[in-house]
Amino acid sequence: MHRKLSMIALSISLFSLSQLAEAQSSVTLYGLIDSGLTYVSNAGGKSDFLANDGIIQPGRFGFRGSEDIGGGTRAIFTLENGFSLNTGAFSQPGLIFGRQAFVGLSNSKFGSLTLGRQYDFVWDYVTLFSMGSRIGAFGFHPGDYDHLAGSLRINNAVKYTVDPIGGLSVGVLYAFGGQPASASNGRAVAAGARYTGGIFSVAFAYNNVHDMPLNPPAQIAASLGPSFPAGAFVAENMQNIEAAASVTFGPSSTRALFTATTIDDSKSSVTMRSYELSEVFQFTPALSGSAGFSYTRMSPATWRNVSAILDYSLSKRTDVYLSAAYQNASGGARAAFLAIPASSNGNDVAVRVGIRTFF
């Protein structure tokens, strides 16, 4: 009888330990899907209706894991890939986890140290202040040269982030060159900071990426200038300096954003600057609206973009939206929204209705 009670006690102890181990570690499958219909007034010279996905946010799925290893420290990892809902294809051909793939340690006091393929601090800290974070591809700046749309994913990166004071987050990143990536091939240095407190928020980000593949005719429908190659080339250096701020009163949030992108190749250099102002208003708990204007100049080319969106939440995970954007380009440039064919002239309009769901 005593032996039987001992076996029962041992079984209960083993079961309790297994439950504790499960509670200390977790793996989460997550993602989002966005699809809809878009009317474009000038897609390569003609108006068109497009069934496209990933416009407000690119489709993705991923795995996020965490394990408590004691002392306030956790082992963490993220594996994330992008895909097209309409074709089933990966958004980064040849890469299983093209958006993010990293592993590291996170401590509640000392911050997080991660290694792998990772985003910069433009994406982490500044993007959420942009009109593109609300409307998607049609609200970002030409070619995403300032990386607000998240096109920069850096290989071979070591990244450290910490929250030293309540509301303040800071981080640094260094990437070793030598292996190909979808957006950058060479060494990279990045840093950023964001403060959120009460009604006021502010963010700053800096990037310096070497050996950046660019194709201006395809990406911005303009030339960088007569001293640069006419087509695709690898820029020796691409530098981003970006700052943003917002002020929130009740349901209304006013946001301002500035980005400066400098591209250097041999003895040539050009800078693209963008200025943006936008407003977000929460009409009801389910209905929100946003509108914004951006001005981008890379002498002599200029782009002006006016965009707006109405978004209605059907549930905590699913929403429907109606968006519209108008872009005007001059100085030798053509209108060029992200993710759709460039206009044949300096003007383009895109109107979209869509649905998005998270899982």
Biggest sheet record: 16 strands, antiparallel, barrel
For CATH, the homologous superfamily of the largest domain is named as: Porin
> Could you name the CATH class of the largest domain?
Mainly Beta
Order of helices and strands: HEEEEEEHHEEEEHEEEEEEE
Poorly predicted runs: 1-23, 180-184
Mean pLDDT: 91
Structural class: mainly beta
Anisotropy-based shape: globular
> What would you say the CATH architecture of the largest domain is?
Beta Barrel
Helices, strands, pairings?
Layout: H1 2-24, E1 25-40, E2 48-53, E3 60-70, E4 73-82, E5 100-107, E6 111-119, H2 121-126, H3 132-135, E7 153-165, E8 168-175, E9 188-197, E10 200-214, H4 216-219, E11 233-249, E12 252-265, E13 268-282, E14 287-298, E15 301-313, E16 318-330, E17 347-358
